[in-house]
Specification:
This protein has 202 residues and is of the alpha/beta class. 32% of the residues lie in helices and 20% in strands. The protein has a single domain, classed as NAD(P)-binding Rossmann-like Domain (Rossmann fold, 3-Layer(aba) Sandwich). It contains 5 helices and 6 strands; from the N terminus they run βαβββααβαβα. A 6-stranded parallel β-sheet has the order 3-2-1-4-5-6, with helices on both faces. β1, α1 and β2 form a beta-alpha-beta unit.
């Protein structure tokens, strides 16, 4: 039986991941860590499974004696209004959060990091193949998010090369759906909120 940790598990994508993980019969304990900065407790309120244990904490300062077979790192704001307001917290959640989570991974465990399409920056190619290297401005207004995702990817792939870390990196593009915050600030949620409130879609 496996112990699994989901960092950022009260967020939009993270909470859906918790739903899916709890369908598995080989998980004995699912620890969900979230500071509820952009995540919401109500995203998990429907889950009554006793295997789920919620810890309210910043991921980079998480205190636990457990070691985990699988770790999923979703802990980061993903919307420009949030990460542009708090660039230090954004960088810390991604990069320092990854360092802390790696300390909690069992030897031979699997680490999954949710990166972003923003690692491609302002691409010259569209759509972008995974092999595209990107064009990111480290001094731009979005750089705290873009660069912390790129740096965390770099850390994980170096550990894969040098230590054999079993790592997966996901780069979502413009996700939306149930549990998206109405004040998310990204295009699709803005369009829907504007339409529902009778405003012009911009």
């Amino acid at each position: 039986m496996k112990k699994v940790l989901v960092a950022g598990g009260a967020g939009f994508i993270g909470s859906h991941m918790c739903d899916k993980l709890l369908l598995r019969s080989n998980i004995s304990k699912l620890v969900v860590v979230d500071n509820l900065w952009t995540g919401r407790a109500e995203n998990l309120a429907h889950i009554k499974d006793p295997r789920l244990h919620f810890v309210r904490s910043d991921v980079e300062t998480l205190q636990t004696s457990d070691k985990f077979d699988e770790i999923y790192h979703f802990a980061s704001p993903a919307s420009p209004p949030w990460y542009m307001k708090e660039p230090k917290r954004t960088i810390s959640a991604n990069l320092l959060g990854a360092f802390r989570l790696l300390d909690l991974l069992k030897k031979g465990g699997r680490f999954c990091f949710t990166s972003s399409s923003e690692v491609y920056g302002d691409p010259l190619v569209s759509p972008q193949p995974e092999s595209y290297k990107g064009q990111v401005d480290c001094t731009g207004p979005r750089s705290s998010y873009d660069e912390s995702k790129r740096c965390t990817e770099s850390l994980l792939f170096e550990l894969q090369r040098t230590e054999g870390l079993d790592v997966r990196v996901v780069r979502p593009f413009n996700c939306y759906g149930p549990r998206t915050r109405p004040d998310d600030g990204r295009a699709v949620s803005n369009f829907i909120t504007q339409a529902l409130t009778g405003r012009s879609i911009t």
